[in-house]
């Protein structure tokens, strides 16, 4: 004989409540099967007691409201977490330690107080990554103290220094007698003398709090922010020598003469060795190159103190009146940095990325770069002019206007082109 199945029976009021509210999960504690609850939803149950019916409807509304509030809470948490994660990815971080302005602290505390009307204090602080101890300290400082000489009331912080100890610390820090003591050494010295016992961090805290300054006069070195500048071509030249090491360990030397006004390389050469005669030969090439441009009368040649610049042949050219030689950082205050910057650009922007194994290969690459530097590469100091155009003074405002007009035309063409592009995804969105 088959075993008889015992079916669960439910009160008619439970059936009516589920039917009225349209919710199969109205009573989760009863563990009513879903199929059974959905069957009741299709049946027209009516509660004869109007009070009970209103209670059921109120219960349904409260459940709806509870679910809505849960969703809102999860959404608010997700938005807060998203904001913190993105700020972290972007590298932004709230640095509470460096907020020294009392006005800013008061505004932050007022904003936290407004948020605490609807949220718990710890939740607000956790959202801001603000520690409870710092928050309480700011509150104490905002309230202030009845003792005018104290910034923080001793009653609120029993372990803080007394007024006499703070005065003594200030005397140590601002005294000329201990001006040569580092603060860390000064805090040990005060302990050894038995005058003041506190940690190094306490010293730093009170120094920042009271703004004490050490009695030291620091003499700043005078720095020439803008180097020597010529007013026209062939007024100032720079001559220098740099070396390049080949893969086999051999040194090659690159020597160049550059015009200060235009950054134009007048002459250059690649050598396996250097001396005064080779320097004079390079200067003769530069003088020949400058013929036909603006007169080089009164030309100054800036060099360093190297022996290749002191040879008899160089002195002979100077005696002929072609230039007046000046040693950088010795006879004049300015350096020879303009030609040094040329060598740095040559090496780092070009030579170091090439496979150079011989003197011949190096010469070929240096010739190529110097030619490009003079005639093809626009110089940033001249807003697009090449050194050759600056040296010959062939650039004019018409060229600038032409580039500006072409720039505006390119913007219009780009706008028209992008308007014609069809993207299926963007069009649907």
Keywords:
429 residues, alpha/beta, 4 domains, five-stranded mixed β-sheet, 16 helices, 8% strand, flat
Compact description:
This protein has helices at 12-21, 34-42, 50-90, 102-115, 121-128, 132-143, 163-174, 183-192, 200-210, 276-290, 312-319, 337-349, 359-375, 387-392, 397-420, 424-428, and strands at residues 236-245, 251-259, 265-271, 300-303, 324-327. It is an alpha/beta fold and 429 residues long. The protein has 4 domains: 12-74, no CATH class; 95-143, no CATH class; 163-210; 236-392, Ribonuclease H-like superfamily/Ribonuclease H (Nucleotidyltransferase, domain 5), CATH 3.30.420.10.
Helices and strands in order, then pairings?
Blueprint: H1 12-21, H2 34-42, H3 50-90, H4 102-115, H5 121-128, H6 132-143, H7 163-174, H8 183-192, H9 200-210, E1 236-245, E2 251-259, E3 265-271, H10 276-290, E4 300-303, H11 312-319, E5 324-327, H12 337-349, H13 359-375, H14 387-392, H15 397-420, H16 424-428
Parallel strand pairs: 1-4, 4-5
Antiparallel strand pairs: 1-2, 2-3
Helix pairs in contact: 1-2, 4-6, 10-11
Describe the structure.
By secondary structure, the chain is of the alpha/beta class. It folds into four domains: 63 residues, no CATH class; 49 residues, no CATH class; 48 residues; 157 residues, 2-Layer Sandwich (Nucleotidyltransferase, domain 5), CATH 3.30.420.10. It has 16 helices and five strands. A five-stranded mixed beta sheet has the order 3-2-1-4-5, sandwiched between helices. Strand 1 and strand 2 form a beta hairpin. Helix 1 packs across helix 2 and helix 10 packs parallel to helix 11. The longest helix is centred in the first third of the chain and has 41 residues. The radius of gyration is 42 Å and the shape is flat. The two termini are 67 Å apart. The mean pLDDT is 83.
């Amino acid at each position: 004989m088959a075993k008889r199945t015992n079916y669960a029976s439910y009160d008619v009021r439970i059936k009516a409540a589920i039917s009225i509210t349209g919710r199969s999960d109205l009573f989760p504690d009863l563990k009513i099967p879903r199929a059974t609850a959905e069957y009741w939803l299709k049946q027209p149950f009516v509660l004869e007691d109007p009070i009970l019916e209103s209670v059921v409807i109120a219960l349904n509304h409260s459940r709806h409201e509870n679910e809505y509030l849960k969703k809102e809470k999860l959404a608010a948490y997700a938005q807060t977490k998203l904001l913190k994660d993105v700020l972290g990815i972007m590298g932004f971080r709230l640095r509470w330690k460096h907020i020294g302005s009392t006005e800013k602290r008061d505004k932050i505390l007022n904003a936290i107080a407004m948020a605490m009307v609807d949220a718990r204090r710890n939740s607000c602080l956790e959202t801001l990554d603000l520690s409870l101890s710092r928050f309480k300290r700011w509150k104490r400082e905002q309230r202030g103290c009845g003792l005018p000489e104290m910034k923080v009331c001793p009653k609120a912080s029993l372990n803080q220094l007394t007024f006499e100890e703070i005065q003594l610390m200030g005397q140590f820090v601002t005294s000329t007698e201990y001006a040569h003591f580092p603060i860390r050494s000064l805090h040990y010295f005060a302990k050894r003398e038995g005058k003041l016992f506190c940690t190094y961090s306490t010293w730093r805290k009170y120094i920042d709090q009271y703004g004490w300054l050490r009695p030291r006069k620091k003499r700043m070195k005078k720095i020439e922010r803008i180097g020597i500048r010529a007013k026209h071509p062939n007024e100032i030249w720079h001559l220098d020598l740099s070396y390049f090491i080949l893969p086999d360990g051999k040194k090659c030397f690159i020597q160049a003469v550059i015009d200060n006004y235009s950054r134009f390389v007048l002459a250059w050469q690649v050598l396996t060795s250097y001396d005064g005669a080779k320097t004079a030969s390079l200067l003769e090439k530069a003088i020949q190159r400058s013929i036909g441009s603006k007169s080089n009368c009164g030309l100054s040649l800036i060099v360093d103190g190297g022996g290749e610049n002191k040879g008899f042949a160089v002195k002979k050219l100077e005696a002929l009146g072609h230039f007046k030689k000046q040693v950088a950082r010795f006879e004049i205050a300015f350096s020879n940095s303009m030609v040094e910057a040329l060598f740095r650009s040559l090496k780092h922007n070009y030579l170091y990325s090439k496979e150079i194994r011989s003197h011949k290969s190096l010469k070929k690459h240096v010739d190529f770069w110097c030619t490009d530097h003079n005639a093809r590469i626009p110089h940033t100091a001249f807003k697009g002019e090449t050194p050759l155009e600056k040296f010959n003074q062939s650039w004019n405002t018409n060229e600038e206007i032409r580039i500006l007009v072409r720039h505006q035309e390119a913007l219009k063409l780009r706008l028209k082109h992008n308007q014609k592009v069809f993207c299926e995804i963007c069009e649907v969105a």
